[in-house]
Specification:
6 helices; single chain; AhpD-like; mainly alpha
Length: 110
């Protein structure tokens, strides 16, 4: 198993409100679901980012974009993903996602 990603501040922020949800995130989602052998972490990141773009979830998109980059997804691939989804999930969702992803790119060196 690789080193776990740092705990996003949002998780600690909501822990007092939904402690069980955070517990499941930390004991089931990341150590079990994300570690299953059927898909690579890179592929799981692409799928997760696509779902977050399509569902218009900019708060989670930020941390999952960071995770996707760490899992080997390239900036170019993220751009293609957003462009592709504009036609399936809607132009506004894609444009909003592009702004979030651009901010992440500006924060993290390539």
């Amino acid at each position: 198993m690789s080193n776990p990603a740092p705990v996003p501040p949002a998780r600690d922020e909501v822990r007092p409100v939904v402690p069980r949800l955070i517990e499941l995130t930390e004991t089931l989602l990341y150590p079990d679901i994300w570690e299953r052998p059927g898909l690579s972490k890179r592929d799981r990141s692409l799928i997760t980012v696509a779902a977050l773009v399509a569902l218009y979830r900019p708060d989670q998109l930020r941390s999952h974009t960071q995770r996707a980059l760490a899992n080997g997804v390239t900036k170019e691939e993220l751009g293609e993903l957003i462009t592709h989804l504009a036609f399936y999930a809607g132009w506004p969702s894609a444009m909003s996602a592009a702004r979030v992803v651009k901010q992440v790119f500006e924060e993290k060196p390539a």
